[in-house]
Structure formats: structure tokens, C-alpha cells
Design a protein that fits this description.
The chain has two domains: 305 residues, TIM Barrel, CATH 3.20.20.80; 277 residues, Sandwich (Jelly Rolls). Helix 1 runs parallel beside helix 6 and helix 9 packs parallel to helix 10. The two termini are 49 Å apart. Strands 9, 11, 12, 13, 17, 18, 22, 23 and 25 form a nine-stranded antiparallel β-sheet that branches. By secondary structure, the protein is α/β, with parallel strands linked by helices.
Length: 681
């Protein structure tokens, strides 16, 4: 809670800050991309309890964890930078308890280990922020009423002395220093704005003496408070700091709260660093649930707030990795084993890359016409490999299977104005006898014309391996038992057919006739629904399912014949904008598969393909594919996604980054990017 400012105290504070500013020019935090480092990846189960949540048992004093860090720190640094889009402003926020600099208690080792971590990040091209944890504790992590750094001069001198010792280490170099707030501590139930501003100015004076800018930390509840602030932390007291580093989430009214804070002068858009404190809320093993229905929507809502506030290019993440193998990964951008990005991490990487493309777009638009497109220089199709684990589809065919498509960047394609990209799932459906196989693909398409694109579901007719008693060689219209060719012709007789059942969206079609001049007969069924996919909009869940089996329909094509088989349906489930509870279900298509009975999906793949001949460097675009999952029977999820880069292709402007899977509870996903600025991973 706030209290009236004492004008004399405020004047003295302002004079102190002005004298400090005369000797030191603060660095602006604008443009930073950061991730909080609490634990290394690859730790054993129970590491969450060693991360510093139990006072005096810090990571920096735990020999077991430090041995893991020593083994994994190079890979961790690479993964941390990767999660931030390999941005030049990639920064590690290193959580380090201030009392560990008490040499009389701990010796010099914790600070030396901190220096080693900073050096490792620096070698990887990553900046560091020193994040001082537990500032009100001392010694071996002890909390006493007398150790009150807000009101007690001796306690404050102890803490400031620890900060000085850290910053005096010659091997340490920090972009910024921050200190954990006391707003949620019982220490500060009655703290005033003057007291907090005084504490901030003292810490800042010490960091500035070491030529480092100071950012005062606040936690998420600060943004949920009213205009009076929280226990002395307010726009008035935080204005004493050279910047603010604030955890934040999608609950409450973040946008309005931060806007009011900026208007009141608590910080500026160049001195505010917000950290995304959204949990991995879609993981069924996590106790923390999503605010808006999914981690995608939570994160999208958070970034929408940042964009509206004018701080969309400056952000951080809580955190890199926060548990051992088998522990909850409550907030991590990286899986606890360090091998892949979580869904949250994949979203952050996509956002960082999107910002980089936006900055490059002015200079990457070609001033001259692109060279002619040839087979050698065009963008080629990219294929994903799905690992279904111990229960492959061939052993247990799927009667229902889901996958998420999310177009994350299509603006450059729209500027290009032609061609397009197809995110496809090729499939084969096999009948219960094993020989009755029919296949095709489905997926989403974006087009250079924003008004075009949409959902597609296509199944090809299949040449019969046997004719089921039909005589397809003798003229004279008959069925089985030696009769003549079944109507309308011999070719028709020799094939199993896909039969459209949703006339408004599905039709018999000459599939791929554009690639084969002279073709004119129908070769299958195509179902399509026009749809415009907005950049960064909601993910779409595509559900392919067997609706019914062994169904007979009479004369559906007007050829005087009846057909029997299974009915399959493709639906698109689209979440409401902003993560609302309402969803829209679009039936893309229904079709009967002739003589394919008691069937299931036995092959299910993925590819990403440009439509038409597209020169390699024409435009940047990206999409994320998640799953497949909810595979029935058994409610299975694909175990992992693989991708093999083809280094012999002339066009290397593409990247595929996979994440999740591996038994950690995270549904596997793949981010696919092509065009200018890619090909560096």
C-alpha cells in the first residue's frame, strides 16, 4: 500500500539520483530477448527442489546439479539462444541469490561458478542479466526479522556488500542487474513508496558504480493491483529505477495496468522488460491450467498486449528449464532433458523470428525481378517423419486422428501476390481385409491472394488388386458371375472409387490434371472450403474420422449403381479469436470409400509444399504442425517427429525445428520456415 510522499525525502532522493545520473548513462533495455536461467537441463528427478526454492540449497552450491551443468552447459546455451530465435539480443537472466557472495559463509566458489556461467553464455553470443534472488535473506539462506533491508541500515549494508562483491569479480560482465521485489514478502506489508524508492536508489548506486544499469523486478500480482500499487511498489517508487523487469501473464487486465503504469511515469517503452509467465498449461501433468484455453492462445494474447503497448520487440520468458527429468516442467521453453523446445518455447522462437523478418522486410524486397524459376532453383517439398512408437498405424489402424495447423507468418506471401503453400497430411486407408487400400491427402492452403486458400480433402480412386468377381474385360454391362463390364466403362470397373456425400463441398474431380495435360476423366473426389488464414491467428485442429462402416448408398452419381463402403469425414475445429470458449466446427468433406469396409488409417504423413514453381528466395513464410494426437483406438499420441535435411538441393532456404515428444508428455510439434533469412539452423 502507498503512503503520502514526504517532500523532503523525495527531494533528497531526486538529488541523489541526479548526481548518479551525471556520472553514469543507463543502457536501454529495448530490443532485448531474454530467458530466465534457474536450472540446467538433464538433471535428475527432484531438481525442482534444488533450484533455490529451498533456501540455502541453491543450484550454485549443489555439486550434483553443477556436474550436470558442466556436462550440458554448451548445449544449453545453444538451445537457449535457439529458443529466442538466435536473436543478436539474446540474453540469459541468471538467477543468483545475493547472500551466496558472503565469502565468510560460502567461500569464493559460488561467485566463481557464476563467472563460469556468464563466460559460457558470452562464448555463445548471449548477454547476461544478474537477477539477485532472495534479497531479504542472508548467511545460509536465513530469514530473520532484523535482516530488514528496507528499514535496517545494517541489513541493507550487508546486502549491498554482497552485490559489490559479485560485481567486483573481474570475469563477470552483465548487461543489467535486477533484484527480486519484496512486494509479496511479509517484510513489506507496511513498506512505503519512499522506503522502496530509497532501497532502489541504493542498489542502483552500487550497480552503476560497476557501470551496469539497474532494473527493478516486480512479480505478476503487481499488474493486478489497483493504482495504489503493492506494498510500496508503485509507479512513483519504481520511477527511481533505470528500468523495470516485470513478470506478467494473461490473467487480469495486463494491457490496461501497464498502460496506466507507463502513463504515470513508472517506466518508458524503452526501459520496460516484461517476462512471459504463462505456464505450460496444456500439459495434462501440469497443475496450472491455461487462462484462455490453450498455451497458444495465452501466449498470443500476451504478445497482443505487448504490441498494443508498444513494447512488442522487448520481452523475456520465465523460464529456460525448471525441473529434472520426470519433474513438472511448469514454465520451461525447453524440455527438462534439454533435447527440444516445448510448445511454449516453439511459440517464442516463432515470435522472435517473425520480428526479425519484419525488421528485414524493407531490405529483403528485391529491387529487380526474381530470376526465372526452374526445377533446380525452386522451393522443394519438405517431408516430416512420424514415429508412432510401439503401436504403429499398420498394427492398429486409426479410426480417428487429429493434428493442429497454425500459420504463423504469411504476410510476405501476400505481398508476393501469387502462388501459395500447402500444409498437407498424406494418408492411406485400408479395409479390414488388408488388400482394400485407398489414399489421398488433406490439409490447409495459404495463397498469395489473401482471399483465396482454405481447407482441402482429396482421395484418389485406387486400382483394384482383385475385382471381387466382376468381369471388367467383356462388354455388356453386368456384375459378378461372368457378366460384362460394370457401368460406365472398363476403367471404372477396375477401380475402387471415392464417392462424394457432401455435394456442396465435395465433387468428383480430375485430381492433379493441371500437371498432366490431356487428362480429363475424374480420378477421385476433392472437397474444399475457402478460408482465409490470418497471420498468427488461432491454430486449427483437423480431425479425420470414420463416421460409419459398411454403408450402402443408391445411385449417388446418377449412373444407376449402388456403392458400399465406409464413410470418412474431415472436420476443422477453429478456436475463437483471443482464446474464447466458443469454437467453430467446419465440416470440410464426407465421402464413401467403395468396397473399403471396417477400415482405418494405416499411413499418415506430413509435407509442406509450395504451389507452383516458386523461386527459392521469393518470400518468407512459416507454419507450425502439432501432433498427430487423439489417435483412436487408445487415445494415442505420436511419439516424435523427425526431419532429414537434403543438403544436395540447390535451394537451402528452409528450416524445420521439432520439439516435444520423447515421453515427456508434450505433444510433438514442428515449426517449418522457408524463404529469406532461413537455412541457418
Amino acid at each position: 500500500m502507498s503512503s503520502p510522499w514526504n517532500s523532503t525525502a523525495l527531494l533528497l532522493l531526486l538529488l541523489l539520483l541526479q548526481s548518479t545520473a551525471a556520472l553514469f548513462t543507463p543502457t536501454q533495455v529495448r530490443g532485448t530477448k531474454a530467458s530466465v536461467f534457474i536450472l540446467p537441463s538433464g538433471a535428475g528427478a527432484g531438481a525442482t527442489n534444488w533450484s533455490g526454492k529451498i533456501k540455502g540449497q541453491s543450484f550454485w552450491t549443489n555439486e550434483t546439479l553443477l556436474a550436470v551443468w558442466d556436462q550440458n552447459h554448451v548445449a544449453d546455451a545453444t538451445m537457449l539462444k535457439h529458443s529466442l530465435g538466435s536473436d543478436v539480443e539474446a540474453t540469459a537472466i541468471i538467477y543468483f541469490q545475493g547472500y551466496l557472495a558472503d565469502v565468510g559463509v560460502w567461500g569464493p566458489m559460488p561467485v566463481k561458478r557464476l563467472a563460469d556461467a556468464v563466460a559460457a553464455y558470452k562464448l555463445a553470443g548471449i548477454k547476461s542479466i544478474l537477477f539477485l534472488g532472495d534479497p531479504e535473506f542472508y548467511g545460509r539462506g536465513t530469514w530473520e526479522q532484523t535482516h530488514d533491508i528496507v528499514r535496517n541500515a545494517t541489513a541493507r549494508a550487508y546486502f549491498l556488500g554482497c552485490v559489490k562483491k559479485i560485481l567486483a569479480e573481474p570475469k563477470l560482465s552483465f548487461a543489467f542487474v535486477s533484484s527480486y521485489w519484496l512486494g509479496a514478502s511479509s517484510r513489506c506489508v507496511t513498506c512505503t513508496e519512499v522506503q522502496i524508492a530509497s532501497l532502489i536508489s541504493d542498489i542502483q548506486r552500487v550497480t552503476n558504480a560497476a557501470n551496469v544499469t539497474y532494473l527493478q523486478h516486480v512479480d505478476g500480482p503487481f499488474w493486478d493491483a489497483n493504482s495504489d500499487g503493492v506494498n510500496g511498489y508503485s509507479a512513483k517508487s519504481l520511477a527511481a529505477a533505470q528500468g523495470v523487469m516485470g513478470e506478467s501473464w494473461t490473467q487480469g487486465d495486463l494491457r490496461a495496468s501497464v498502460a496506466a503504469f507507463l502513463t504515470a511515469g513508472g517506466a518508458t517503452t524503452s526501459t520496460l522488460l516484461l517476462l512471459n509467465d504463462v505456464p505450460n498449461c496444456d500439459d495434462a501433468s501440469q497443475p496450472k491450467r491455461c487462462s484462455t484455453g490453450s498455451v497458444e492462445n495465452d501466449t498470443a494474447a500476451w504478445f497482443a498486449d505487448l504490441d498494443a503497448l508498444g513494447v512488442g520487440n522487448t520481452w523475456g520468458v520465465w523460464d529456460f528449464c525448471d525441473g529434472g527429468i520426470g519433474d513438472f516442467n511448469s514454465y520451461g521453453d525447453v524440455t527438462n532433458d534439454g533435447t527440444a523446445l516445448t510448445r511454449k518455447g516453439t511459440l517464442h522462437r516463432a515470435r522472435a523470428l517473425q520480428e526479425q523478418r519484419a525488421q528485414q522486410i524493407v531490405i529483403t524486397v528485391p529491387a529487380v525481378a526474381l530470376p526465372p524459376c526452374t526445377h533446380a532453383t525452386k522451393q522443394r517439398a519438405l517431408y516430416l517423419d512420424y514415429d508412432y512408437g510401439d503401436v504403429p498405424l499398420s498394427a492398429s489402424p486409426a479410426t480417428s486422428i487429429s493434428v493442429d495447423h497454425h500459420w504463423t507468418n504469411v504476410s510476405a506471401l501476400h505481398s508476393f501476390g501469387k502462388n501459395g503453400v500447402f500444409a498437407a497430411q498424406p494418408i492411406e486407408i485400408t479395409g479390414g481385409r488388408g488388400a482394400d487400400i485407398i489414399g489421398g491427402y488433406f490439409g490447409t492452403q495459404v495463397d498469395g491472394d489473401p482471399s483465396k486458400g482454405g481447407f482441402l480433402f482429396s482421395i484418389w480412386d485406387a486400382l483394384r488388386k482383385e475385382t471381387g468377381g466382376k468381369n471388367c474385360t467383356t462388354p455388356g454391362g453386368g456384375g459378378g458371375g461372368g457378366g460384362g463390364v460394370a457401368a460406365p466403362n472398363r476403367t471404372w470397373c477396375e477401380h475402387r472409387h471415392a464417392i462424394p456425400l457432401l455435394s456442396t463441398r465435395c465433387r468428383r474431380h480430375c485430381l492433379d490434371c493441371g500437371l498432366h495435360p490431356g487428362w480429363h476423366n475424374t480420378t477421385g473426389v476433392q472437397c474444399s472450403v475457402p478460408w482465409t488464414f490470418e497471420e498468427g491467428g488461432s491454430p486449427v485442429r483437423l480431425v479425420l474420422e470414420r463416421e460409419s462402416t459398411n454403408v450402402t448408398v443408391e445411385n449417388p452419381l446418377g449412373l444407376g449403381q449402388k456403392y458400399t463402403g465406409d464413410v470418412w469425414r474431415l472436420s476443422a475445429v477453429i478456436e475463437a479469436a483471443g482464446g474464447g470458449k466458443n469454437v467453430q466446427v467446419v465440416e470440410v468433406g464426407r465421402m464413401l470409400l467403395e468396397d473399403v469396409v471396417d477400415s482405418g488409417v494405416t499411413r499418415y504423413g506430413a509435407f509442406h509444399e509450395h504451389i507452383g514453381c516458386v523461386p527459392c528466395s521469393s518470400f518468407y513464410e512459416s507454419e507450425e504442425r502439432r501432433g498427430p494426437y487423439a489417435i483412436q483406438p487408445g487415445n494415442r499420441t505420436v511419439r516424435g517427429i523427425g526431419f532429414q535435411r537434403k543438403t544436395d538441393l540447390a535451394c537451402q532456404l528452409y528450416d524445420v525445428v521439432v520439439g516435444g515428444g520423447g515421453g515427456g508428455g508434450e505433444v510433438p510439434s514442428a515449426v517449418i520456415e522457408t524463404g529469406p533469412g532461413t537455412g541457418q539452423k
